[in-house]
Amino acid sequence: MTTTTEDEQQHEEYDSKRHAGLYGAQRVKAMSAVLLALLLSVLDYAIANVALPLIAVDLHASSSRAIWVVNAYQLANLSCLLPLASLGARVGFGRLSQFGIFLFLIASVACALSQNLLELTLARALQGVGGACIMSVNIALVRFIYPHNELGRGIALNGLFVGIGVALGPTLGSLILSVATWPWIFWINLPLALAALALAHAALPQTPRSDIPTDVVGSLLTVASFALTGVGLDGLMHADFVSGAAVTAAGVLCWAMLLHYQRERLEPIVPVDLLARRPFLLACLVGFLGFVASNLYIVAMPFTLATAFHRGAGTIGLLIAPWAVGVATMSFVVSRLADRFPASVLSSIGLFITASGFCLLWFLPTDAGNWDIAWRTLFAGCGFGLFQPPNNRAIMVTAPPGREGGASGMLSVARLAGQTTGALLVAALFTIFPHPAFICLGAAMTVALTGSILSLGRKYLAA
Question: What range(s) does the Major facilitator superfamily (MFS) profile domain occupy (predicted)?
């Protein structure tokens, strides 16, 4: 028996035939294809971080330049999510996911064969586009695989595999680098990508397609808006004020042009029609704040452990791992709750627990033991795992039938934009303060608490 309130139920829009879902073996095979493609995308992003020092040495690049191996992937991914989500609604979500897996495979080969940093950065950008093809339609496919009254389970399972990918990435990367050179972190993608491609071709469902023509101009403006704004803000956060301000201004101009151009579009690339719906907008804002908080923690915590707690590189990885374990475990537990309880309850509690975990870490003395750090990290991760699935479900069910692609794209944009903003804030705090380790934890706690309060009030704000 559901405990979702009538006020929240009226905001859920679905078509009983369109969203009837799959059952039995069909559902298992289709969801396996979605999760394998998702794991491919998340795992490779996490693995690449571990290899950055070796890549910098081998390709004779500075550490600051080598970071673009990660930035190129994330920026290309973020810039292309919304245009590709729109394209997926036209060509079919399953077909776009298959193309993304194929592109990811080709880009992985290019990464492994790269002879200099420029080649590797460009190949990683191409890999980011492939990842965007997968991520932009990932939740949209789940919307068609699970019936409406079980959608929370599918989204929670999706979150579980994200957590598994994040947890496995650094460990698998370290194992590969202990016996092989850094190109093997990309060669390892080939068997996984081939298996994902075969399963996706055989099992992904045929989804309804929009007959509205592709908006090429809107797509190009969207990519330029995200890319220029991201590069410009990165420059500003690293105190490169002249070029950073100029590129950011160009990005803002592109945004103004894009929003003006899209006002009269029936299905705009940037889904302003969906964002005009308060329940959808609030869910996206809560998701954004959650991921800002998580990346303020994830990016800064290795430095905090090294400089404040004086832990070595091997120990740092083990002390951060409980976060991913907590996220993955709670995502599995909440799968049976997300369809019964409203996001205004579950997600609010989840972000409050996350903020409490950050607060407990913030007040730790610098001579604290490993267990004291680990259980607090696990506690914060469990809160984040409780927050994600209900909020993601709220984003999808408040979008009307026919706009699943735009909703799925915005869900991924909220996540990536939050992660990017969190990383930029860490860079800014490290630039401003000489000893910012605990300041980042305090900022993460504040943002998570703000997200919890916003989530708790969504029922009243959406009225």
Answer: 30-460
Q: Tell me the backbone φ, ψ of residue 338, rounded to 5 degrees.
A: -65, -30
pTM over cut 0.85:
no
Q: How far apart are CA 103 and CA 117, in angstroms?
A: 20
Q: Which two tokens stand for residue 203?
A: 């099992």
The DSSP letter of residue 334 is: G
- Buried b / exposed e over 283-322, threshold 16 CB at 10 Å, is bbbbbbbbbbbbbbbbbbbbebbeebbebeeeebbebbbb
Tokens of 332: 């599995």
Distance separating alpha carbons of residues 177 and 175, to the nearest angstrom: 6
pLDDT surpassing 60 at residue 94:
yes
Q: Cα separation of 87 and 89, whole Å?
A: 5
Q: Decide: 280 and 421 in contact? Cβ < 8 Å.
A: no
Residue 95 one-letter amino acid: R
Q: How many residues does the chain have?
A: 463
DSSP 7: H
What angle, 0 to 180 degrees and rounded to 10, lies between the N-to-C axes of helices 117-145 and 93-112?
160
CB-CB contact of 108 with 186 (8 Å): yes
Angle CA 115–116–119, to nearest 5 = 90
* pLDDT tens per residue, range 341-357: 888 899 999 999 999 99
Query: What is d(CA 33, CA 177) in angstroms, rounded to the nearest whole number?
Result: 28
Residue 142, helix vs strand vs coil: helix
